[in-house]
Amino acid sequence: MSEIRVRFAPSPTGYVHVGSLRTALYNYLFARHNHGKFILRIEDTDQTRYVEGAVENLLNALKWANMDYDEGPGKDSDDGPFYQSQRLDIYNSYIKKIIDEQKAYPCFCSEDRLKKMREEQTAANMPVMYDGFCRNIPVNEARKRIEQGDKHVIRMKTPKNGITKVNDIIRGEVEFRNELIDDQVLIKSDGFPTYHFANVVDDHLMKISHVIRGEEWLPSTSKHIILYDFFGWQIPQYAHLPLLLNPDRSKLSKRQGDVAVEDYIEKGYLPEAMINFIALLGWNRGDDQELFTIEELINDFTLERINKAGAVFNIEKLQWMNSQYIKSMDNDSYLSVAREWLKKLEIQDENEADILIAVKDRLTTFKDLRKETTIFFREMADYSNEAKEWILKSESKVVFKVMLKEMGHYSQLTLEIFKQLMQDVQKTTQVKGKNLWMPVRAALTGELAGPELPMVIDIFGKNKVEKLLKQAIEYRG
Ligand code: GLU
């Protein structure tokens, strides 16, 4: 087989959709699995959709996800430039060729006429597509009108008979009736190519062997195949990825949760967890393994194991995965990421490392550091309703009082001393188990759940523990 070359070809229109990240990832995994090339091409020919900073966002997201490309912006090769807006001369030379061969034609129809045409077609329940009004204008006349400066676009002259077949690795053979394929605009009146034209020319020139992209592009593929035929170029292999769905199986939408990769970065997800999660949106290895390292993904990924059915974006699963990834980090790597987050959250403390380790197992994302570390950064407790109930239980009072008194025997509270202390309290009060531990936890942390108590006590130190016990005694009145 000739070299595997795939591309991720986003249109920078603002944020990076999680679906785009999946497309990028599947291309990346396929390239790495096959020792091929992964190319990044920026499809920025739609000037009306230009958004400042969108390309930077994209590059950042790829960098964050650790998906390095072999050719693309900043990694030029003979196939560049990789911004379509810098390739206009190339598209012009190719469009000339098919106009000369009468496979494409200038269309002078005004917006008004096209609007009316569409309205009439809709009213008559007909497919909405160009009616071919300019398809047969004699070449000389068309040339004259162009020289006069008449506003026009260039459309492809789609054959009106027969069928166009798309062979898709995931979907099998899909057929399209040519009479229903539109005379797609290839060059717009501003001289810029449309997605369809630039995409086909570039995939050919960049020697793309496999086009792996979202299912929404499948119908367009029929037009692309006709274009390949016009030029006599070899058609790449196609793999159209299943839709991403909300849990109610509607198309994944902003209304039901975050869809921008930037949101997940900002919320403190680990790239490794996100990649693992995204990889399973439409692909599985054939068993029920859920946690994969990137090496395993590269090793096991094949297009044949991608599903046809839509993939549900289940945020709880992502959260679970992220917490698993955090738990499995070694403490040094964990601390270096967590410290960055503390800085971002503007939290500082001399016991930083101990605090971070104490809450490690409780984090779903790094953003949780704020909530999970508050008990360490406040002087007095702020009781939840459940905590209040435990504090107010009749036998809790004696627990607090005895604990406070017994603490007087120790100059400081270490892990061992705390253990001893609780044994002393149990002996004196005869309160044990939950009835002993819960009021203490409630009084010290204000909550019923939290990091392990001995760790909390160790970080709090004797003074703070004393103060908090006094607070609880006072609260009971
Ligand atoms: N520019 C298209 C997009 O933004 C690329 C589609 C394709 O991969 O052909 O999704």
How would you describe what is shown here?
The protein is mainly alpha-helical and 477 residues long. It has a three-stranded antiparallel sheet. Strands 1-2 form a two-stranded parallel sheet. Helices cover 47% and strands 9% of the residues. Among the domains are: 44 residues, no CATH class; 99 residues, Arc Repressor Mutant, subunit A. It binds glutamic acid. Glutamic acid binds next to helix 6.
Short description:
With 477 residues, the chain is mainly alpha-helical. It has 19 helices and 11 strands.
What tags apply to this protein structure?
477 residues; mainly alpha; Arc Repressor Mutant, subunit A; 3-stranded antiparallel β-sheet; 19 helices; elongated; binds glutamic acid
What CATH architecture of the domain at 378-476 would you give?
A: Orthogonal Bundle
Alpha carbon gap, first and last residue: 82 Å
Helix content: 40-55%
Instruction: Name the overall outline.
Output: elongated
How do the helices and strands follow one another from N- to C-terminus? EHEHHEHHEEEEHEHEEHHHEHHHHHHHHH
What CATH calls the topology of the domain at 378-476 is Arc Repressor Mutant, subunit A
Helix/strand structural class: mainly alpha
Layout of secondary structure:
Blueprint: E1 5-8, H1 18-33, E2 37-40, H2 54-64, H3 88-100, E3 104-107, H4 111-123, H5 139-147, E4 153-156, E5 163-168, E6 172-177, E7 185-187, H6 195-205, E8 210-214, H7 218-231, E9 237-241, E10 244-245, H8 261-266, H9 271-279, H10 294-300, E11 311-312, H11 315-327, H12 331-344, H13 352-359, H14 369-377, H15 385-392, H16 396-407, H17 415-429, H18 434-445, H19 453-476
Parallel strand pairs: 1-2, 8-9, 10-11
Antiparallel strand pairs: 3-4, 4-7, 5-6
Bound molecules: glutamic acid.
Glutamic acid (GLU) is lined by residues 9-11, 43, 195, 199, 213, 217.
